Amino acid sequence: MNELSSTDVFLRHRELLFSIVYNILGSVADTEDVLQETWLAWSGRAGIENPRAYLVRVAVNAALARRTTINRRKEEYVGPWLPEPVITPVDPVEQAETVSLAVLVVLETLTPLERAVFVLHEVFGYSHPEIAELVDRTPAAVRQLAHRAREHVQARRPRFAADPRVQEEVTQRFVDAIVGGDLNALMQVLAPDVTLWADGGGKARAAGLHPVQGRDRIARLIVGDADRRPIEQLDVRYRRINGDPSAVLLSGDTLFAVIVLDVDGDEITGIYAVTNPEKLTHLDVTR
Questions:
Q1: What is the pTM of this model?
Q2: Is there a contact between 56 and 38 (Cβ–Cβ < 8 Å)?
Q3: Does residue 102 or residue 44 have the better pLDDT?
Q4: Which residues, in sequence order, are bridge partners of residue 247?
Q5: Which of 176, 271, 183 is nearest to 223 (CA)?
Q6: pLDDT band (50, 70, 90) for residue 213
């Protein structure tokens, strides 16, 4: 059997590398840049016994370096910052390494190294000694980082993930209430302490410069916004975004917004609305 070329080896691991780096960065464009750096470090090299370990090591460390640039952009960002949404498969096996948008928001509050350790251990199943080799730390230091990150995430995400069927039903009820301009129906589906994160990046209409809290305030804000831009003129499609059943809104052929809901029971506790066109250009909702 012929030995695989360096390109074939890289392509064989590209999906894994993309998933790891994206979950560390939350940015598709930056992830692609890191993968390009990883390819340049890999191409032309020979005699590497464990290509997967080498590629993951290069990609993770490049992602950690890239976090500095992303954090600087976030400081100058207009309004709430949300990760770039990605469309994910329905297949539960393929979704095993998918992190929800809500969890990615929590991961933004970790240090870069804590986030990398959390992603590698909790999402991809790397052991502490394996991670230690990847990030040039001792296993004891990695265990401490993993413990701190896990406690931090669990404190902010204590609930179990919602049943996808329930989440899909609640999402449809939410959209139907908006399309119908039904304030009462909207109030019924929102939890009293619901929070809205609207990421327009200063380039699209959003709910303000800060997250909005409270059922009454959010319901009236959404209905009022729908009155200014009739949502019935938008094409609503349902896709899985970062593993969750979600709504995608199009105005003609232009992607207008992605709406992902955080659901507890049959109530919405969090609304994540991405309208910044720069964060939507990579999405293909035609499939």
A1: 0.90
A2: no
A3: 102
A4: 238, 259
A5: 183
A6: very high
Amino acid at 67: R
CA atoms of 79 and 203, how far apart (whole Å):
10
185 and 148 fall within a common domain = no
Q: Which of 40, 43, 19, 13 is nearest to 31 (CA)?
A: 19
DSSP one-letter code for 95: G
The last residue of one of the domains, among 156, 179, 202, is 156
Q: How far apart are CA 249 and CA 263, in angstroms?
A: 20
Amino acid at 215: R
Q: In this structure, what CATH number is given to the domain that contains residue 99?
A: 1.20.140
Q: Give CA angle at 138 (137, 141), nearest 5°.
A: 85
Torsion angle of the four alpha carbons 65, 70, 75, 77, in this order, in degrees rounded to the nearest 10: 170
Q: Report the number of secondary-structure helices (H) and strands (E) in the chain.
A: 10, 6
**Rounded to an integer, what distance in angstroms lies between the CA atom of residue 252 and that of residue 275?**
15
